[in-house]
Amino acid sequence: MKDTETSKILSFSLLALVFFGASLIITSFPLLTLPLERSLNISHSLAGLLYTILLAANSLGKFVESFAADHYGRELFVRYPGFLMVLGMIGFAFSPSYWSISLFIFIAGLGQGLFIPAGFAAVSSLFPERRGKFVGLYDAIFPLSALGAYGIVRISNLLGGWRYTAGLIGVFLFLASIVFYFLYRSPGREGKTDTKEAFSPSRKIARALKEAKNCPVFLQMVTLIIPVSIFALGVQNFIPAYVVKGRGFTEGFGNIVYVAFMGLVIVGKTLSGGVVDRKGFRWTFLFQVGLVLLGLILFSQVPGLWALALGIFLIAPSRGGLYTVMHANLLDSAPAESVDLLYGLFAVSLTVFGAVGPSLLGTLIDNIGFRWSFLVFIFVIMTTIPVIFYVGSSNSPVKDDVS
Fold first, then answer.
1. Are both 141 and 47 inside the same structural domain?
2. What is the pTM of this model?
3. Maximum Cα–Cα distance for the chain, whole Å?
4. Is 158 exposed, middle or buried (0-12, 13-18, 19+ CB in 10 A)?
5. If I label 110, which of 151, 300, 301, 304 is the partner at 20 to 30 A Cα–Cα?
6. In whole numbers, what is the pLDDT of the chain averaged over residues?
7. 198, HSE (Cβ side, Cα atoms, 13 Å)
8. Burial of 194 (0-12, 13-18, 19+ CB in 10 A)
9. 403 occurs within a structural domain
10. Which of these three, 185, 216, 235, is where a domain ends?
11. What confidence score (pLDDT) does residue 83 get?
């Protein structure tokens, strides 16, 4: 029986509910960096390593889902990973040591990675004629969850600290997962194949590598995503810590700056899609890199509240926009028969390389301080400039002939 519009909206809402909880795990983490450092008496590098573990597990989950969903069925990966995230966050809340926290963070991140790509695919299947609208709405949940994370952290501070943040997110995910389990109705068989012979990880990996090798634009976008993800996730994780320890403001103000940053990311994602259609990929990307560089210099090297505020205003929308224009260029340029596979590999690459950022920046901060560490990251993002000129002059179908 064909799903009614009401049942589709209900299924979308349930997916969004679990995705909001999954997003809370990531967007709350920068707000927990300072409390974890104080409570566990750990360095910036070890705090950054926790975020790296979360992102690495997320990447592993995405990789597993991308190669197994068509055999075991996508519904398996939307219906059950929420409970894995619950286990991770509740374990995180009660963990007595840094290393046990690391284990449960890994479990939570693995659940995230298994759910997130399957959730996007499910939303796409629910609304094939309005895919752009609903995928866009769904994607906006991630940065919006930063506001929810801020509220949970505020409540947790009144209750007693960071353990309550992890516990409240775990409780939210438990309730969301229970409701989802009983009420969600999938749009069909969710891509499940009929034969076991169809599932061959070695063949799938070989095909993926072949498709990637034969698509220059994919290789170029991955080359760009390495410095962009290292920069974006490294800086994003240490914004509250820098505002407090590097600038001397209160922890509450640092948390507000982080939430404002994530809100401006939404603005950048929203505006960049239209700009790249009119101006082409290369010039849109270069313009945003220029804004990031100027913003990062103001944010980290120039004293004064005005420089901090203007730096955030320049960095955040451009950080969101850089991802959007790379996504758009890959989706527009990759062969139609390979676009799903290549985009999935690109999404995994984004998280894998992004996982380097928090540990790298944390280690630099421990050894050379905030100011010089951010200066290193300025050079990291500058490495995209020679690459983008190669992209523009290559034979890949980059749209830069738009007037």
1. yes
2. 0.84
3. 64
4. exposed
5. 151
6. 85
7. 12
8. exposed
9. no
10. 185
11. 96
CA 209 to chain centroid, in Å, comes to 23
Q: What is the pLDDT of residues 318-363, one digit of tens each?
A: 998 888 888 777 767 767 666 666 777 787 888 889 999 999 999 9
Positive or negative: CA dihedral 269, 58, 120, 23: negative
pLDDT > 90? residue 196: no
- Written as one letter, the residue type at 128 is P
> Which residue, 283, 286, 278, 272, is CA-closest to 325?
272
d(CA 92, CA 99): 10
Q: What is the mean pLDDT of residues 203-225?
A: 75
Q: Which amino acid is at 13?
A: S
Residue 70: pLDDT over 70: no
User: CA-to-CA distance for 12 and 362, rounded, in angstroms?
Assistant: 38
Among all chains, which residue has been given the structure tokens 């301080």?
A: 369
Total count of domains within the chain: 2
Do residues 180 and 212 both lie within one domain?
A: no
181: which residues sit within 8 A by CB, 6+ positions away? 79, 82
Q: Write the CATH number for 375.
A: 1.20.1250.20
Under DSSP, the state recorded for 161 is S
Q: How far is CA 319 from CA 206, 233, 272, 291, 296, in A?
A: 33, 10, 10, 9, 11
Q: Which amino acid is at 24?
A: L
pLDDT at 403 > cutoff 50: no
Which range marks the domain in which residue 244 is found? 200-397
213 vs 295, which has greater pLDDT? 295
Final residue before a domain boundary, out of 153, 185, 217: 185
CA–CA dist 83, 80 (Å, integer): 6
